[in-house]
Amino acid sequence: MNCLLCQQSFSQALTLADLLYWRPLLTERICSHCQRKLQPITIACPECGRAQNKCEYCRDCQRWLRTQPDQELHNHALFVYNAVLQDFFKRYKSLGDYRLRQAFNADCQRWFRQHPADVYIPIPTDTDSYTRRGFNPVVGLYAPCVPLTNCLKKRPQPIKQAHKKRQARLRTPQLFYFTGDAAQLSGKRILLLDDIYTTGRTMRHAQACLKMAVPNCQVNTFTLAR
Ligand SMILES: [Zn+2]
Ligand SMILES: [Zn+2]
Fold it and tell me: Is the pLDDT of residue 135 over 70?
């Protein structure tokens, strides 16, 4: 098999756990050389998932939760958004290399097995990005790992977000609307899925939208990178 990040050929090493547990084997798509360049997040801010040396709220989250104490996300991110992941997302999202969607399947699946939710909801893409790319990168990343419930739609956005300052971005009106069956999600543990956590704005909008439609659901979030 060829590594999806560096294209070098490699063979998957079986671990003792793979041999001992009777369960489908996770197929690694990244060679051990590339694996070593990734930075898995082990100790993090419990709210945004930022890598830290202590498991306590980071300064951004402390500030946010002082004003919005009932809007906790408990985001979990797998890897630091370092140069390797920046290059990966450039090729996957900007250049639209759809094969790369499988690169992190094994890592994500391992985490989902250990932290199962009732419902997995991907962050939707807007129509323009979908037309340009031909796929939703978030659905691409997670569809092979867990069953996805598509029940959020993105509203058309008049101004490009990149041109706005952080505070202005956090204040923008609701980005999403709910298109699902509220009764089906009632009382469920929902895991919202996105690719990269930057300011948390997308996740907070999606969480607020779900909570509005389904007041008694529990919503946490997951991203590949932070
Ligand atoms: Zn590699
Ligand atoms: Zn934080």
Answer: yes
